[in-house]
Amino acid sequence: MPAASLHGVVKDFHFPALHNGLDFLLSAVELLARPEGPGSRDLKYAVLHLRTAAEVLFKARLDMHSPELVWWEPSKFEPAKHKAGDFKSCGAETAIERLNELAKDDGAMVLRTTLDPEDSDLVALRELRNRLTHFGWSDTADAVRTRTLPVLVLLLKFLRLDVLPYIEDPGEAWNVEQETDSINQHALDIEDYVAHRKNEISNELSGCEYVTVACRSCGQYAVVLDGGAVDLKCLFCGKNYGSGTEAAWEYTGEDRHMTLKDGGEDFDSCSACGESAVARVKTAGAPNSVSYLCFSCGSDHAGVCDYCQQAGDLAFTVENMGEDMCEDCYAYRLAKF
């Protein structure tokens, strides 16, 4: 094709920071909210684009206030290089830290959205992005949708409260608002789907709150440790954990053989079934405290004895003795007197 004919169809490439972040965000929600359901490539690029959207949008807000703070080293800021994009910029976590510092120390900067660089949802998305970018990963569609939804909600709130009110050009503000509305509609579709899935499994989870732990993939409290199961799995996203000891190690994301080989410790053993599968976890019934649950039989224990390293009922605890001691160890020692 002659070069001249190309000039009639090629359009300019124009993605300033805010528009660039919005475009990545729109791409992510369109991929996640496909009416026929997202495919494998859709899920992969939704994760990559959503993480990129978060980073670019945080930096775009910094750029609106203090462009030099977008630079990795603000002291080296040069307007010409900044305009040309010829510089090393900060990451998402650093951008959040700098936004928080501005809101705290600079009266001209107000931050209405609560942003935490170690927010669990942002961290989970970052880790998933890193796996996909640097090696590879396998997961379910429901897990990806559920993991990405909280970040979508956070970014939409950030746009509404902390970006739109500070866009000086009325025309640009109108365009950003229209794009945000479109993104919000797709996010609502994803929210509806997640709510539907939760409702579908609600009866299976009812009454099991204190033996139900959060899934490592989707983050939902939907893995029920119903003793004796040979195929523990997340009722929400379908991730398989195996059974007993295998499930406990799969849940932590570590390998038993390598952990023990490197001098690490096995799980504490269960006084009810004898399996080394007792882990310290949070449950749906007590998400703010730690429970000692056996992945093999589902037993919920009071704690772990410092003498026999078995989980079970305790006769004495750290509070009243300085160490945790189970009833069997206490009876054994009492019999020696």
Structural class: alpha+beta
Low-confidence stretches: none
Per DSSP, what share of the residues sits in E-state strands of 2 or more residues? 5-15%
Number of helices: 12
Number of strands: 12
Order of strands, main sheet, comes to 8-7-6-5-10-9
Major β-sheet, in short? 6 strands, mixed
Order of helices and strands: HHHHHHHHEEEEHHEEEEEEEHEH
N→C terminal distance = 99 Å
Overall mean pLDDT score? Answer: 87
Summarize this entry quickly.
The chain has 337 residues and is of the alpha+beta class. 50% of the residues lie in helices and 11% in strands. The protein contains twelve helices and twelve strands.
What does this protein structure show overall?
The structure is a single chain. By secondary structure, the chain is an alpha+beta fold. The protein has helices spanning 3-6, 17-32, 40-65, 79-84, 92-105, 120-134, 141-163, 170-205, 244-252, 256-261, 318-321, 327-335, and strands at residues 212-214, 221-224, 232-233, 240-242, 268-270, 276-281, 291-294, 300-301, 303-304, 310-312, 314-316, 325-326. The protein has a six-stranded mixed beta sheet with strand order 8-7-6-5-10-9, with helices on one face. The chain is elongated. The mean pLDDT is 87.
Write the layout of secondary structure elements.
Layout: H1 3-6, H2 17-32, H3 40-65, H4 79-84, H5 92-105, H6 120-134, H7 141-163, H8 170-205, E1 212-214, E2 221-224, E3 232-233, E4 240-242, H9 244-252, H10 256-261, E5 268-270, E6 276-281, E7 291-294, E8 300-301, E9 303-304, E10 310-312, E11 314-316, H11 318-321, E12 325-326, H12 327-335
Parallel strand pairs: 5-10
Antiparallel strand pairs: 1-2, 3-4, 5-6, 6-7, 7-8, 9-10, 11-12
Helix pairs in contact: 2-3, 2-8, 3-5, 3-6, 3-7, 6-7, 7-8
